[in-house]
Amino acid sequence: MTKSRLLFLSIADVNDHIIFIYTKQNDKTTSEKLQLLTELSLDVIHEMCDSTERPILENYLGLLGVEDDISAYGYVSNTQTKVIIAVRSSEFLVKDADIKTLLKQVHVAYTHTLCNPFYNSRNEVAALEQSSFFKSTFYQILKSWQDH
């Protein structure tokens, strides 16, 4: 059995409400640690977006922080939707281009889901979890990323 490179992925809306969470961890302690890492990453994203040094056209924010052997990366859309991933950095060589591609693919899948005329946006968390298109696209992206 191979270890997963991706430990955690979350999508947060403009108000920083977590609307989607994916994690490979089953134990409560690690899940709580990853949840805390997400909250800290959201704070870093706000700092970066408020900074005048960041190029305005760049959605990929890069490395947000490292906690033990877990690295967090971020992506923010022009509508302030945030995608955050956490990967094991001690066991795998992680290329910046691969992370950028993964984050962009997840954001595109999310955007396509929102653009579906049958998408129920009243309860975005439940609707995203129940969207067969989003789930199948997300797991396809995840599988292709884990395989290389």
UniProtKB/TrEMBL annotation:
Coiled-coil residue windows: none
The organism's place on the tree of life at top rank: Eukaryota
Annotated Pfam families: Sedlin_N (PF04628)
Protein's GO biological process: endoplasmic reticulum to Golgi vesicle-mediated transport
GO cellular component: cytoplasm
PANTHER family cross-referenced by the UniProt entry: TRAFFICKING PROTEIN PARTICLE COMPLEX SUBUNIT 2
InterPro entries noted in UniProt: Longin-like_dom_sf, Sedlin
Gene: tca17
Protein name: TRAPP complex subunit 2-like protein
